[in-house]
Amino acid sequence: MLRVIGKRLALLVPTLLGLSILLFLWVRSLPGGPATALLGDRATPEAVERINELYGFNRPLIEQYFIYMGKLLQGDFGTSLLTGRPVLEEFATRFPATLELTIVALIFAIGIGIPLGYLAAKHYGRWPDHGSVVLSLIGITIPVFFLAFILKWLFAIKIPIFPTDGRQNARINATHVTDFYVLDGLLTREWDASWDAFMHLILPGIALGTIPLAIIVRITRASVLEVQNADYVRTAKAKGLLERTIRNRFILRNAMLPVTTTIGLQLGLLISGAVLTETVFAFSGIGRFLRDAIFNLDYPVLQGFIIFIAILYSLINLIVDISYSIIDPRVRVQ
Amino acid sequence: MSTTLPPASGGNDSASKDPALPDSGGTSLWKDAFYRLRRNPQAIAGAIIVVAFLLVAALAPVLAPYGGEDLPGRTHITPTHIPGPGEVPGFVLGLDRFGGDLLSKLIWGAQSSLLIGVVSTALGLAGGMLLGVLAGGFGGWVDNVIMRLVDILLSVPNLLLAVSIAAALGQGAYAIMIAIGVSQVPIFARLLRSSMISQRGADYILAAQTLGLSRGTITMSHLLPNSVGPVIVQATLTLATAVIDAAALSFLGLGGGRPQTAEWGRMLTYAQDELGIAPQLAFLPGLCIAITALGFTLLGESLREALDPKSRQK
Amino acid sequence: MSFRGTTPGRWRRARRRTAAITAGLAASALILTGCAESERGATGGTGEDTGVNSTFIFAASSDPKSLDPAFASDGESFRVSRQIFEGLVGVEPGTADPAPLLAESWDSSEDGLSYTFQLKEGVKFHDDTAFNAEAVCFNFDRWYNFEGLQQSESVSYYYNSLFRGFSDSPDTAVYGSCEAVSETEATVNLAQPFAGFIAALSLPAFAMQSPTALEEFNADDIGGSAEAPVLSEYAKSHPVGTGPFKFDSWDVGQQVEVSAFDGYWGEQGQVQKVIFRVLDDPQARRQSLEAGTIDGYDLVAPADTKALADAGFKIINRDPFTILYLGINQEVEALADPLVRQALSHAIDKEALVRQTLPEGTQVASQFIPPIVNGYNEDVPTYEYDPERAKELLAEAGYADGLTLEFNYPTGVSRPYMPTPEQVFTNLSAQLEEVGITIEAAPDKWSPDYLDRVQGSSDHGIHLLGWTGDYNDTDNFVGVFFGREKPEFGFNNPDLFNALDEARQVSKLEAQTPLYEEINADIAEYVPAIPLAHPAPSLGFAPRVESYPASPVNDEVFNMITLSE
Lengths: 334, 314, 565
Known about the structure:
By secondary structure, chain B is mostly helical. Chain B has helices at 29-39, 41-58, 60-63, 102-138, 140-154, 158-169, 173-200, 203-210, 215-223, 228-251, 264-271, 280-307, 309-312. In chain C, α16 packs antiparallel against α17.
């Protein structure tokens, strides 16, 4: 097992190496080159010269790449052009916010998606099935930011139930220990702070969780459909086992395999969704920071983030594969 | 954002199955698929939406009361008030922030969405087919290199990939088309390759090999035509994601052009600030994007089902 | 005009005005006085007695760039600075005119090269350092002796542009020396005349800072580069001034907190604690106000003012001290033709523009200074809206078949003089297209692209830009725009340059006025750009905010806020 994991991790190396080359070339292909990206379109030639000198942009490409790679390996992802602070530091301060949001979104998606998918399969061809298929279709085709608008308009403007002013009410003098605001409130026993932070998460969480929800419904439905006609389920039914036992021990357990994969693979979607959701809800996490980086072409931030997300993505893939073998001992990690 | 959608039915990925398997009726694959599509209400709904969308886009100059960038209602706008549907005669759906006719802008928006969708999908398809054919046809180290590259690109979230490409190209509608097109290349490439590999051991390929046909001929005249099924399904679905992604890129401010450009995503960008006083400015373009995406998705999924041999046996 | 006796220490600033300063109270001052009367009863002392929630939360659009105002030039830094620091010279409430503050009075020598300040007695910095003549000279000498990175334009912008030189470049420097004559009397000697000296001292950049704290926390120790300076310990967490509030904390990206300074020499007011909460999203600011989680924010979007007012929130407009103009680049061949520039003027319906895109309280502009600035000329030549005339002029200039112009505008930005650039652009371009001009849209993001392109290169056509005045000084408007050859406008008009130069040198206001009136008329004749409007920036407040010291130059100190609950 460990050896397999080691091998998989080793396979990460060429992928990341390739990615770093692509990113390096990408920065060099920005209109006007990196110095102009730093200084803006109409920089004076002298300023460009100075920046080129300072950052070594005028050295041979290969040499530049090794300098860049060396820095990356030391954990130096460069400095944000927008804020002037190290990229990693910027991510670290914003990561808890986005993680908190993602967790809420996933809880929403899984908590509703799996039961709904199961119900659809159980009542295959009848209205719960049709209903959930339509629902998941809508969930997939609705643009995230449009859904965010609707939620905001309905539940924050028309019927103001949920706050949409960032992560926490400024009047609550909350102590921040971990920067996971809900957790902070629980740790410090500032219940109101925790509750307030949680309320701030509901609307963006729903907006962000809807696409994963739709996909989880479909996958669960499809895989339960396949499993529930399997021989072992029929056998179990024939033996007269309790329906609950059949559902939990036989159907769901076996149907969860593809569902797990899907949840793992939602990461990319969640990140893209976070950029849009956080923008609409003024939620100050990584997504909004990325949006600003996109708008202002803050390339060290984009570059750093892409590497970060690629590593995360590969690791999650690995974890998903490992969790396979835990859910289903028949599967071996390869 | 865009994703390879999981099948709606209980079937597995059709790419791994053999779409060329002759069925009992003896009709051709596509004819048969078409027959099945016609009986599928999902497909009909999708087709109606898509045809309506195509008609609106094509007939925009006739249908739209005003030009896409015209501001005929400029004098009715104040900072605190934007006339809504029916408020000012002549503007059925009301005005937008700049004084444009909302109805006209929605109609012209269909045209620009269609253009972006088709061009970027065609680009992604062309690029993906090229890489896929190279990888699937040659195998060996070519396959290895290309698939590594595809893996790398697939590990970057689609929207971020598109954004990065758009950033390097500069602002504008063309940048968006290319960016979305290129970001779809890896998906097409991988799909075509796996489809081709699954065909490689098929009897008709072996037959062609024994006949002494060249590798190029076999790839181009036999392997490829029999492997494009899943790719075409994916292309239909990509049209949906391209419309959504284009809106997202515009929404993030990468669209270029004038502020009043009739483009659904662009309209949403500005609508954000007016959500309180004119929610229709956000809802109507959003609805158009969602419905168009729904149309292509329905059609694409029905197509996948129709081409899926497993569902054919039912 | 004098307020002496009418304000028993309610205003933080002394009322007595020196003879050198002319009056010019704008309407907003009257509003303020009105408010002041209505609340006098409530402000018996600290907020705690009256059962008022004495914490005031104001939404800032960003973090301050630096808490050391000498190294800052942005609005959010200055907003915080104004609570912590005071300068020798303040601003007459509700106007843009200088008024005594830490200096109770001053005299200048006949040649305008020497100023003697009589300082307020018994003032202490928050760290208990005494404020005296030595502290004054310490600050002046500190600025003058900036070196290296500290001198760069992006770091010490205001000292750079107004005092024009440092100790290692004495030839260009305006500042000469400072002498502590006695504990309460300081003399500042200038190396060359500077008519705007007193008015300039009202800028937060020239506020008095505690010499002890500056030294202890190495205020001058800044690192990094001009593009991305790294703050000193002082500028991050130890700013010390004489103002009504002392600094508590700065949680980057979250908030800055200040609280009432017990030893403040003036009236402390109701507000005991101010939190500047960073909310960089305009929508979030509005929603926070509606949700009651903040007490106020600046630059309310024009679209929101009515809805907020209807819902019971207070919208306060600052008196416009702004100018929005349509810039013209005469490097473009067609635009060098005066007929074309006049045609553009006739083609634009400024009233429609203001009504359709700019906030309430905005005034249509006929010249490049707001009406309350010295030298405003009621009788400048104007170009009434007349599209037919515009077409004729274009035909006369040889563009009967049409004219194509590049129109530059910024995106994703909101400025006090231009809340919604995209709307102004679409409106103007539609107007221009009606007289047969074809517009090529050229959007750029505000900073650095747009500014670099419009101000730093000649690669642009007509463009949108504007200005918010720093203090009441005509040169601070027209001199900045048209005082020399600039790539922004691309013209060389020695007569205009000379006239502006001459007017700037005159040290007496009465003598300056006729000169500027004439210059304004000449500019209107020449049309180097088209003045569009003086937009009024709006602030939004919670219903409990009874009054807010709105100031055209943003000189708003929160001890003057009154709250009802």
